[in-house]
Specification:
Radius of gyration: 19 Å
Largest sheet: none
CATH superfamily of the largest domain: RNA polymerase sigma factor, region 2, helix turn helix motif
Number of domains: 2
Strand content: under 5%
Number of strands: 0
CATH topology of the largest domain: Rna Polymerase Sigma Factor, Chain: A
Shape: elongated
Distance between the termini: 50 Å
CATH architecture of the largest domain: Orthogonal Bundle
Helix content: 55-70%
Length: 189
């Protein structure tokens, strides 16, 4: 039986580095998916994830067992992603956007067509960061509104509104893209 997050945190606090390595292996894939979807650039995502795990390790003394480790770690990661986005606004981009970069680690749900996944990812990246963050945390990572509020520092009603607006904007972008496609035979299916 795998040790719980709380057990691993306690062992890591006691100096057992391998216990923290288990937590990193357990949560690195989901952290990387979130960071890639938020930041789109692999180097920035990798840096944000590494910073989040390093910060979490340094702050293990402040971790409270009543918190879920994944939620606590995600809160740190959200803040790292926000820092990267703020830094980008201050600095001019060095390279042009490379399509498909964010999809490398971000596995779409089964049954999705690859082109649909790319369209959703492209639409997600056009959302304002606060809406994209809320949509990803709610629909992709499965957090409830109250948890997202705790993670982001926003009120529950603000989180609900961000998720709602993000979903509406995504729908509008995807519908506009779908409606603009040429139809075979001229009829809508």
């Amino acid at each position: 039986m795998d040790p719980s997050d709380s057990e691993l945190v306690q062992r890591a606090r006691e100096g057992e580095i391998d216990a923290y390595a288990v937590l990193v292996r357990r949560y690195h894939p989901s952290c990387m998916r979130f960071a890639l979807r938020m930041l789109r650039e692999r180097a920035d995502a990798e840096e944000a994830v590494q910073d989040a795990f390093t910060s979490a390790y340094r702050a293990l003394g402040r971790y409270r067992d009543r918190d879920r480790f994944k939620t606590w770690l995600t809160q740190i990661l959200v803040n790292r992603c926000r820092s990267v986005l703020r830094r980008r606004r201050r600095e001019p981009p060095l390279v042009a956007y490379e399509p498909g970069v964010a999809e490398v680690e971000a596995e779409p749900p089964s049954g999705w067509e690859p082109s649909w996944s790319a369209e959703v990812q492209e639409a997600l990246m056009r959302l304002p960061p606060a809406l994209r963050e809320a949509v990803l945390l709610h629909f992709v990572d499965g957090y409830h509104y109250r948890e997202i509020a705790r993670l982001t520092g926003a009120g529950v009603s603000a989180v609900k509104m961000r998720v709602k607006r993000g979903r509406e904007q995504l729908r509008a972008m995807l519908e506009a893209r779908y409606d603009a496609r040429p139809r075979v035979g001229g009829d809508r299916a």
